Amino acid sequence: MIVRFIALAVALSRGNKKRMSSNPLFSEPSKAALSKSEQTRSLILAAAARLFREQGYTASTLRKIATKAGIEAGSIYYHFNSKDEILDEVLDLGLRQIFEAVKKTRGDCEARGEGFREIFAAMVQTHLTYLLQASDFTSSNIRNFSMLPGEMRERHRPLRRAYADEWDDAFAKALAEGSIRSDIRVVPLRQFVIGALNWTVEWFDASRYSIAVFSRKAAELILDGMLTEPGKPVAEKIISEAVHVELPVTEGSKAAHTRSYILSSAAKVMRNRGFSASTVRHIADAAGMEAGSIYYHFSSKDEILDEVLDRGLRDLFEGVSRVLEDDKQFPNHRSRIAAAIRAHMMFLFARSEFSSANIRIYGQLPEKVRARHRPIRYEYSKAWDKSLSEAREAGEIRPDIEIAPLRQVMLGALNWTVEWFDPQKGGEEDFYTLEEMIAMLQTLLLDGIVRHATMNSSGT
Questions:
Q1: What's the pLDDT band for 411 if we cut at 50, 70, 90?
Q2: How many domains does the chain have?
Q3: Neighbours of 419 (CB within 10 A)
Q4: Which of 399, 422, 438 is the last residue of a domain?
Q5: Quick one: average pLDDT of 24-38?
């Protein structure tokens, strides 16, 4: 069934896209419709999608794809001219599946006369189902797209734009009806929501959570926010001024300064290209030195990677933890959580290229590399969980919210901003400055996207 399902979808993505309007991805094709060649092609694509999802495009060789598909490496060329051609089909199919499914879900809800809350919850569940369970193609698209060459990304932008438009249209309609808050722009709102959902590919464990239950809880969190008392200001001047964390200053010899500069250059290269596509030569070029000179300071690219990852998360952990523990400057949980959100974003965009590099590349690293850095990630999670649990015990966070999923959705919304937010565009139409983006994230995470629209004049 899986092979026939994929084969039909592949055929549709290669030229019969008009039939998508009747949503044939949800129907079973006839056996006679699929040749042996189509089935083999589908196996190759399924194997590639799984590898692209787990290891990233660069690390997934044709030999690995053939092995996973159970065929000889040379046989791939009977069906595809190159790995790029395979990737193109995987990306197209992955996004086409989720686009058509979410579009159908929304249409069915509207046909039944359901309101925005029900429509939104259904769209969230469909998105997460395809991302986490139904399709390696969709999660492969999400995990690889931003690090692909510009020319390859451009070929897939029209379909991504169409999917974004589906969400934008739903939000614009809800805004016109007064179903969501009026103090937010549609495009950043959509990016916030999709980001929170997409980050789940980095952590969601289907053995611990039901997708249906988690989807409902995630939708409720996004709709209503985490706090029990909505409406109070969260971007007070004290929050902006207080969260100014100094990063470590490199001291010592010229060699120490050179080593630090290499690490900084490597972080920027890895953040933009991904780890597998970043060579020692790329790092040397960014640092303005000969490639061979790197080896006077580091034994390998893996050693550089370890230091970049460690410093990136350690900067973030120490800076944000300092805020979460500061009950004197931030005496109430609302201001403390808001300040910590700001600190997290400042490290991603203004304070540390190491932190943003860590966030972007961690999910595509080999398990043995991730395992070495898991303890510090766990400590960072514990710092948030402690603060959020204390807020819930104090009655400031809704009692129906589970802390671990709350923290994951919240950090997902923050972390995914590295994939789409450009503070340099602040001031342009539909774009925010960094401070405006932080204020939006604080408001939406704490108060949700609908509360402001339903509050009465007394603020309740």
A1: very high
A2: 2
A3: 17
A4: 399
A5: 56
